[in-house]
Amino acid sequence: MSDNRVIIAGGGIGGLATALTLHQIGVPCVVYEAVREMRPLGVGINLQPNAVRELYDLGIASDDLDRIGLPAKEWALVGLNGNDIYTETRGLLAGYNWPQYAVHRGQLHMLLHRLAVERIGADAVRLASRVTGYRKISNGSVTALIEHADGVTSEMTGPLLIGADGIHSAVRAQMHPAQPPIHWGGAIMWRGTTQAKPIRTGASFVGLGTHRQRMVFYPISQPDPKTGLSTINWIAEVTLDNSDGWKQRGWFREVGVEDFVHHFDNWVWDWLDVPAFIKQADGAFENPMIDRDPVPTWCDGPVALMGDAAHAMYPTGSNGASQAIVDARVLGACMIAHGVTPAALAAYDAQLCGPISQLILRNRGAGPFGLLNMVDERCGGTFENIDDVVPAKERTDFMAGYKAAAGFAIEKLNSAPRTIAQGARVG
Q1: 85-92, Cβ contacts within 8 angstroms, sequence gap of 24 or more
Q2: What SS3 class is residue 143?
Q3: DSSP-based three-state secondary structure for 252
Q4: Which end of the chain is less crowded, N or C, counting CB atoms within 10 A of the terminal residue's CB?
Q5: Where are the alpha helices (DSSP H) in 125-179?
C-alpha cells in the first residue's frame, strides 16, 4: 500500500506526540504500534518545562495534566543523615513560564492516545502491528515492513518513516546494524507507588542517598480530600558489580518488596521510614538502569529516529519523556521549513543528535544526581553543614550546567520563540 502519510513506528509517548504534531501542521500520518491494547502502564515521570510548553502548544491544557498528575514545586537532594544537599524551586515558582509536572506515565500515554484518535481519526493508531524494518525506494520514499499479531505481514509506503519504537527499536537496528548491545552500568531499580502523605512542600521531588544506593520519590496526585494521602511514586536503586552483565531473563519484571527492601533497613529518620514506606506499596517492578551508546546520526535518508529509539538514556535527569516530546516538535518545525522531505529529517538530526548524544553520556555519569556522588566522595554522605563539603556556588553551577545541557535553562527557555509558530502548517 502506498499513500502520502508519514509512517510512525511506535505508539508510545514520542510516537503519539509526533502524530499530534504532524496533524497540527497539516501532515497526514499513521502510527503502527505493537501492543494489542493500549493500557496505562508504568509509574511516575516528570515533564520538564520545555516539554510542558510543547504540550500546551499542542492544545493540551493544564487541566488535562492536573487530572494525571500535579505541578512540581521543589527539587531536593538529601544526604544520608537527612540533611539537605541542594534544594531549588521548580516550574512556575522558579520563574519558568511553564510548570514542571509530575504525572503518571501510563495516564499521559492514554491521554495522548485518546487525543490522537479524536483529532486524526479512529484509524490513526493501528494496534497489534509492529514495524520490523524498512526499504528505501528509488523515488525517495520509504516502505515500512509490518508484522501483525496474527502472523500476517504487510507493507506501507510513504514519504517518511519515523522510528519511535523504543530502546529495542527495529528501525534503529537496521539503520545501525553494528551498534553495541544495550548498556547496563550496574544499577538495579525497583519502582512502585505508595499511598502516603506528601512531605516538604507537598509536591517535592526528593533524591536521597549516594551514587551507590539511593531513593527517589515524589507525589503524582493531589492529596485525597478525605484521607490526605497522595500517590507517591518511588524508585529504590542499588549499584552492583556488573562485570558479568545482566543475568535475568528479560529487562522488566514484577517482584515482591521482600526481594529488595533489606537494602534499606537502616534508612529511618523522623521524617521518613523507607522500609515501612516500601512495604506499603501497591506492588513493585524491577529493571536494570539501561541505555544505548550514542550513534553518529539519527537519519537514513527518508527515515529518522526519535525518542528512546534515538537516545535511550538513564532516567537520572527526568528528561527521557520530555526529550521525546521535544523531538516531535522539532521534527514538525523542520517539516514546516523543509517540507515532508529527507531534508527536514536531516535538519532535525543536525539540531538534536549531537547535543542529546552528549546528554546520554552526562546522564550515564549520574546527571543531576552527580551532586550525591560528589558529597559521597568528600564526606561519605554524612555532614552537618553542606557548605563545608560542597560550597553553594559549586552546587549551583553544577545544576545550571545540567539544565543547559538538557534544554531547560530558565532564561534561554523563557526567551525562546515557539518551536512551531501558532497556526503554522506545511505547504
Answers
A1: 85/371, 85/372, 85/375, 85/386, 85/390, 85/395, 86/371, 86/386, 86/395, 86/399, 88/399, 90/205, 91/49
A2: strand
A3: coil
A4: C
A5: 170-175
Q: What 3-state DSSP class applies to 31?
A: strand
Question: For strand 142-148 and strand 129-136, is the pairing parallel, antiparallel, or unpaired?
Answer: antiparallel
pLDDT in tens, 262-305: 999 999 998 999 999 999 998 899 988 889 999 999 999 999 99
Cβ count near 336 (within 10 Å): 20
Write the CA distances from 203 to 58, 73, 316, integer angstroms. 25, 5, 19
The span from the CA of 41 to the CA of 38, in Å, is 9
How far is Cα 80 from Cα 209, in angstroms, rounded to an integer? 5
Picking from 398, 126, 167, the residue whose alpha carbon sits closest to that of residue 290 is 167
At residue 380 the predicted structure's pLDDT band, cuts being 50, 70 and 90, is confident
Rounded Cα gap, residues 172 and 180, in angstroms = 12
Beta bridge partners of 268: 273
Question: Which amino acid belongs to residue 182?
Answer: I
Question: What pTM does this model have?
Answer: 0.94
d(CA 209, CA 77): 8
Nearest to 233 by CA among 70, 10, 91: 70
